[in-house]
């Protein structure tokens, strides 16, 4: 789906990026009880939050060589790829995590952010709806899905207003929907 120029992918990316699960927000997915001093996921998260992506990736890879099933580190690798604009790699990471752990909403959310940023709102919506089927208590997923619906509504009202330029009510609805999407961006 292509968003109209009045809305643009940059705004949509901003909408969902405000609700993407980042390293800063990251909590252990399976109740990781590793002490902070030796918690590699926490160390990787801190490096990501400081913008030291190469160091974060090196540490994650080093730790994953020892424990390749560490879900938290695997997820954080996807976040690093997102932060460094390597979306194809990030997609592969999140898709694999979804296959292995469909109950974890975070991978769906971040994958949806990537697709929405590419203008593929339908795929983003599908992912978020699947996430809710597997985990109906994810606030981030509901928020992201609301942003998708708002973006789609803005797109539809804008198209309708272009087809009926004299219809003031359609123009008003298009403006309200566009304002809603802009207000939710960071």
UniProtKB/TrEMBL annotation:
Keywords: Signal. InterPro entries: TPR-like_helical_dom_sf, TPR_rpt. Residues 1-23 form the signal peptide. Pfam families: TPR_10 (PF13374), TPR_19 (PF14559). SUPFAM superfamilies: TPR-like. SMART domains: TPR (SM00028). The keyword Signal applies. It comes from the Bacteria. Gene3D superfamilies: Tetratricopeptide repeat domain. This is Tetratricopeptide repeat protein. It comes from Parasutterella excrementihominis YIT 11859.
